[in-house]
Each structure stands twice: as C-alpha cells, then as structure tokens.
Amino acid sequence: MKQLDENVWVAGQIDPADLPALAERGFRAIIGNRPDGEEPGQPSWSVIAAAAQDAGIEARHIPIAGPDDIAARKGDFAQALAEMPGPVLAFCRSGARSGRLYEAAQG
What we know:
The protein is an alpha/beta fold. It has a single domain, classed as Alpha-Beta Complex (Protein-Tyrosine Phosphatase, Chain A). Helices cover 41% and strands 17% of the residues. The chain contains 4 helices and 5 strands, in the order ββαβαβαβα. The protein has helices at 19-24, 45-54, 67-83, 96-106, and strands spanning 2-3, 8-11, 29-32, 58-61, 88-91. Strands 1-2-5-3-4 form a 5-stranded mixed beta sheet, with helices on both faces. The longest helix has 17 residues, at 67-83. It is globular and about 35 Å long. InterPro entries: BLH_phosphatase-like, Prot-tyrosine_phosphatase-like.
C-alpha cells in the first residue's frame, strides 16, 4: 500500500478476506479500479463489494481498462473521493492505475 495524501491510499489487488483487516486499520471506503475478468482467478467486484459491506466499508467500482479510461473517469473518481468517508483505499492490479487516476482527478 502507498499513501497518496492524508485520506487516500492505493494498493494492488485486494482479496475479499482482506476487508476485515482493512476495516481494523481504519479504512472506511474502497474504490475498485480493476475491471472484472481482467485476469484468471481475480475476485469479482460483486464478491469484494459484499465483503466490504459485511466489514462496514463503503465500496464503489470505477473500472479502468486503459489510458483512455483514466481521462474519461477522472471526474467519477474525484466525485467518489468527495462523497465517500475516508480514509479511502483505491486498488487495481498493482496500484499504478489507481495512482494515475488519483493524479488525473487532482487537475
């Protein structure tokens, strides 16, 4: 995990079993930036969202498949950060897309 500001962290793929520990660490929201089915064995967003709900964490899915999606979805990401309680963990396969989306949303 990498902290980007006082309220936002990015990480690689999380597992549904990670959600209780993330709640214990104080995370109050997650944003999934990985499209479903990107890689074999990847947990689906619906399973992650259900685990987040069970852990008391708000969840939003803003999938980013490539560079064009970053420009198109940066407003959605900024809106999610404004609306969701923090701290927020955004994740994708490695954390890189989430970091680029965060940077784009700041502009």
